[in-house]
Amino acid sequence: MLKHLHRCSCNYLVRWGLRYVGDASTSGISSNTINTISNCLKIKESEAHYMCLKHPTITKLKDQEIIEIVETVKELGYPKKVLVEQPLLFSSLPITLKYRHQVLTECGFENITTKHLTSYLTLVKQKTVAELKKSKVIPAVLNIENRLASYMTQWPTSLTTLIVGDAEEKTLYQLRLKIIQRYLELVLDLTEEEFYRGVQTYATIKHRPLAVINESLTLLQSSLRIPKEKIKNNLYLIHTDPENLKHIIFEFRAIAGIDIKEIVKLHPKIAMKNFKTLFEMRRVLQNYNISDEAQAKCFPIYTLSPETVSERLEKAKEIPEFEVLFNHPRFLKMIYYNKTAIKRLQSLYSNNKKCLSLNVLSGCSDHYKLFEKAPGDRSGKGKDLIFCLSEAFGKKISASLIRRQIQRHQYWINVPVVQVKYVFKKLSTHFTDKEIYENCTILLYPWSKVNETIKLINANGKNNKSPLSNIIDNVDYSKLNKSQVLSLVLYLLEKKHYFTGNGIWTEEQKQNIEFSYVEGTHNIKDSSA
After folding, report:
1. Which of 39-43, 179-183, 374-378 has the lowest mean pLDDT?
2. Buried b / exposed e across 368-377, counting CB within 10 Å, b at 16+?
């Protein structure tokens, strides 16, 4: 009678779930999720929908995550239908299920069921070894201490006792934790205080299979040759996935031509990244034409997600102060410290400081504070300006020659790189690189003034009654070549300032300057929203 009622109740619930399958949005469940569960578990869509209703955590999973959990259950030797009987399995990550199964195997469990996996914490933290043996979950004759210790391979032969007291009265959690502690004391010279501080910070170490910890340490010390002190200072390395680490070493292999082993020594966090994510990051950087040189100067960029880096690179193109440095060898620092760089940019603009360098925006805080508090506005040694001009000239002219030309103007480091790049872009539509280079200092002047003066000269060539006839006599403007035109522009720009160089300070409120500053600031606000 009870079985009949239970069967009727289940059928009713399945039919009730079917009412909503046609319009999954009414219950907030994606039809893709229902289809994925239905296809993976070979069940009706109504049953899949009912599972989602009863266990909402399933609806938060992406389709690929559902597929990975189903594949993991299959790899562990269970039929797919156990996920219908034990939907709580969907609330665990695939790697968690694998590790729980492996830990229970190491502890001597026989015939591990999915119920054991879902009640894992109860079994290892609340049941003593004696209680587990009494319930026949593990063999009564099993020496649990020796079995657990056997998964670690670097014990000294002189060591005879690992556990103080009766192991039978302890939980598996206590036994495993003590063995991990003793092992790390011997292998890494880790003190008791360092160990407990480490497992408190990186709690998953406590539930890592012993064989996995052992293999990870072997790879870190033998293959990567990371010193003990480095591992002690970065204890998260202990819960590195050894299989993933092998993929990084033998498949990913290098960044910018440099052996990944050497890189991981310097930046151990990279060892924690999924090797597929590292490959995806490499593709993202290649798609944005980020050079090997730039990657070699910022290896930590590989510790971020590809989505984050792609988003930041895209936004960098919208910020003039970032865009002009896009091809700089150290530009990735601006992406890695993106939030800091944008915050500094906004702060400096509010203080009317616009001669910004890459070091100021993404360098150490001491260097930034020094620049922020310093009087005036200058771009340090002008290295970023020289680099940007070298890029603009297509690297056909050496940086030393560009510097020699541009520094003829006494205020060359007091002009924002954004403004210089903008003036070059405008001039390059009518003048060759050689002609601009011969009059390099013209790039330091606001485009509105340069453009106005060029128009004045052109008008004078067509009309002898031009205003210029009162400024310079006996000049046939029609016979001037383009380089001479730019030289004349420079002459006229500085003539009224008695050739002091002060011509660059005027007319900063005109349209071309507003493009560099006001429009740039608008984009900055957008990118940080």
Report:
1. 374-378
2. beebeeeeeb
